[in-house]
Structures are given as structure tokens and as C-alpha cells.
Design a protein that fits this description.
Layout lengths: L5 H16 L3 H5 L2 E8 L7 E2 L1 H14 E14 L2 E12 L5 E13 L2 E8 L2 H8 L1
Parallel strand pairs: 1-6
Antiparallel strand pairs: 1-2, 3-4, 4-5, 5-6
């Protein structure tokens, strides 16, 4: 178990945020390992592999335009990172703004995110989507 370098870790999270805000799918996915494992609220099964996640990312960009992604806290514990964040976007169909706050726990190996588990209340987002 190798402890993460805080500077590299923050840089990876900044790279991810910048790519998301720019709607740069390739840049966003470059932050993840090919064999990633992601657990998201509302997803009945974990997402396995970068190609499966790419479909979700592309679908998300098709439905909403990124506005802001604020990290409130970023804590590093060995190869794990805990982050608290707020995401803001606008629905493409209606231009209506939406926002949700959540937490995530992830594992980083070789400067790539390999595991991600996200926590937020799906009802908050569902209410905004109407």
C-alpha cells in the first residue's frame, strides 16, 4: 500500500473537473484506469470498465451542460481519497439549472482512479429533473 502524493492527487481531481467542465470525454476518461469499478446511486449494478463508463459519461453530456463542480473537501488516506462536492449543470432540453451535493470514496493506483463509490440522494436530483 503506497500513500498518495497530495499534489498529484489534487492535480488528478483538477484534471477531471476541467475535462468535465469542457465536456472533454477523452480527457475525463483519461483520469480513470481501463478496469475501473464505479458504484453510483440509482445504478443497480456497478459499472465495470472504461468503455461502459464512457457510455454513461457521453449520455450525461447529451442530457446536461456542465456549469460548475466545487470540491468542498478532499482528504487522502493511503491510496484512498474522500471528496465532498457540489455539481451544477443545466438541462439541455429546458436550460433549467440543477445541482446536487455528494461524497465519494475512491482508490487511486498509478495516478489513475481505479475504484469509485459515490453517495448522494437520488431524490434530490429526481425532483429537479421533474
Amino acid at each position: 500500500m503506497t500513500a498518495l502524493d497530495p499534489i498529484k492527487t489534487r492535480s488528478l481531481f483538477e484534471q477531471r473537473r476541467a475535462a468535465w467542465l469542457a465536456e472533454d470525454v477523452a480527457g475525463y476518461l483519461a483520469c480513470w484506469s481501463d478496469d475501473l469499478l464505479i458504484e453510483l446511486p440509482g445504478q443497480p449494478e456497478p459499472i465495470r470498465g472504461k468503455s461502459a463508463y464512457a457510455e454513461i459519461v457521453e449520455g450525461s453530456f447529451a442530457r446536461m451542460r456542465p456549469i460548475a463542480w466545487t470540491y468542498h473537501h478532499l482528504a487522502i488516506d493511503d491510496e484512498y481519497v474522500l471528496s465532498e462536492w457540489t455539481i451544477e449543470a443545466a438541462l439541455r432540453a429546458s436550460h433549467r439549472p440543477i445541482a446536487w451535493r455528494g461524497m465519494a470514496a475512491c482508490r487511486i493506483d498509478a495516478d489513475l482512479i481505479t475504484e469509485w463509490r459515490e453517495y448522494w440522494d437520488p431524490a434530490v436530483l429526481r425532483d429537479q429533473l421533474g
